[in-house]
Specification:
The protein is an alpha+beta fold. Helices cover about 30% and strands about 20% of the residues. It comes from Cannabis sativa. Belongs to the cytochrome b5 family. GO terms for molecular function: heme binding; metal ion binding.
Length: about 120
């Protein structure tokens, strides 16, 4: 009986840990900010600026022409290093793959930092 109660409590705690998104840490530097252009309050980034953020300790991705700083989420990503496959690049196709539950569509907005500048 005690084992069942402990199992239920652990399952609830684990579920809360997985379902509650963590706020992103600021992964960009003051130098990055000098290259940001403003357009009606939205920060714009060039593809070359995003490409500089291509490692686990500094990871930005593009999804449908929006830029996300997912650095704080890299180590927690359930798919492991799969998130790094397109670090600093377009991750739209992988993001909309069948492996993601619908809640990721809400979670990703926590990491939004701006839009991709149109070429």
């Amino acid at each position: 009986m005690i084992a069942i109660v402990v199992a239920v409590v652990l399952a609830l705690l684990l579920g809360a840990f997985v379902l509650i998104p963590r706020p992103p840490k600021s992964g960009h530097t003051k130098n990055d900010q000098s290259n940001v252009k403003l357009n009606k309050g939205t920060k714009l980034y060039t593809k070359s600026e995003v490409s500089l953020h291509n490692k686990g300790t500094d990871c930005w991705i593009i999804i449908k022409d929006k830029v996300y700083d997912v650095t704080s989420y890299v180590e927690e990503h359930p798919g492991g290093d799969a998130i790094l496959a397109h670090a600093g690049d377009d991750s739209t196709e992988g993001f909309y793959g069948p492996q993601h539950a619908t809640r990721v569509f809400d979670m990703i907005e926590d990491f939004y930092i701006g839009d991709l500048e149109k070429s």
